[in-house]
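Hi all, long-time lurker, first post. I run a small reading group and we've been trying to get comfortable going from sequence to structure in the token notation. Rather than ask abstract questions, I figured I'd post a concrete chain and ask someone more experienced to write out its structure so we can walk through it together at our next meeting. Sequence below, copied exactly:
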Amino acid sequence: MIKGNWSLSAELKQNERKRQSKIQQRQKHQFKLDKLKQIDPIKLYHRIKRLEEQESRSIKDDEYLNNLQQDWEFIEKNKLHQLKIKTFFDNQQKLQQQKQKELNKLWGQKSIYFNPELNPLGKIPDINNLSERLEPLENLTIPLKNRKQITKYESDPLIQQLNIKLPSGDPPRFYKLIQNTSKPKPKVKIDEAEGDDEELQAKQLNESDASPVDSSDNEDEEEEDYNNHKKPKLV
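-- Answer (accepted) --
Happy to help. Here is the structure in token form:
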């Protein structure tokens, strides 16, 4: 049954608009696909992270961030740059694990927090136990990895005003070596040592007594051979 307000021309125009809209959507999708195929996904990821971490963003920054996030979702949905993205995230995970490992590593004497009695392992102090509120401490070693973190302090002008003279000799140093940890070498008992000396002397005496007997026997054998050689042969 045909409705009273139905029009063939209006129906044809509506169908044409739908067809044109689908064509435009396909063209738009293809254009975006070709565009994002040539883009570097790693740079896109860093741009998104940098804008997300930015505290004060303008309206344009929010719009730009929204567009970048849509591009990233499009890349993931259409599975573009899969191998590159996978290797990138694997490397990021390895770096994160390495940082966590270095953060929890115990440096011992190399740590700036080392103390032979209070902190022999060089653990990072727990900031919750401190009276002052501080930022999370880094696991630094000696010398410091980053020289920019070293702060140089100027001498107090009050020392020059009061004309304070330092005492003679070397300045005091903080002793950061663990003491009394080496095991003493075992001492040889005197009785055992004397017993060993007596045994060695007895062996040497026995050898010296046996040696002249052997030499005399050898001399007798040589004389017999010589006499036998001198005897004339009987015809």
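A couple of things your group might point at:
Residues 210-216, 229-235 have pLDDT under 50 and may be disordered.
The radius of gyration is 47 Å.
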